[in-house]
Amino acid sequence: MLGKTHIAFSLSLSSLSALAYNHFYAPLDSILLWQFYIGVSFGAILPDIDEPNSLLGKKTFFISHILKILTGHRGLTHSFFFVSLFFALTFLIPNFETLMIGITLGIFLHLLGDMMTPSGVPILLPFSQKNFYILPLFMRFKTGGIVDKSIALLSIIAFILINKLILI
Ligand SMILES: [Zn+2]
């Protein structure tokens, strides 16, 4: 999945949780909503920091090269361990809970997106190197292909429509 698709896909799914929160719990403050979406967008591209050619990797040249050498692409940054690390940080960094929850959710949704591609995700690292998928083999799609780009487009439309409902 392309970096832009990861952002769009994660934003559309996370906006559903914002809609549910707004509907069932309490009206959402627009500042908190923005913090949440900024967090989700960052989290959605963060795991690919282990790939120097990714959206984030291109901006962190040195770090992404070291990470790729140490863990390989789709290594530890593509595991439940990495998701748990950021979830734990949510409780350790005061006043930024909404941003941190957004980042954690973005990372999780990135892994979900990668689990729809032929390579899958070694979600149980460092305990197991087995790759996991959420789609059967014939439905998995290549990064940058027509399905990838269609998901990005549909996600952007869904994100706009869902946010119209939130801001009513
Ligand atoms: Zn990835």
Automatic annotation (TrEMBL):
Keywords: Membrane, Signal, Transmembrane, Transmembrane helix
Domain of life: Bacteria
Signal peptide from the UniProt entry: 1-20
Residue stretches spanning the membrane: 75-93, 99-125, 146-167
The UniProt record lists the keyword Chloroplast: no
InterPro entries: YdjM, YdjM-like
Protein name stated in the entry: TcpI
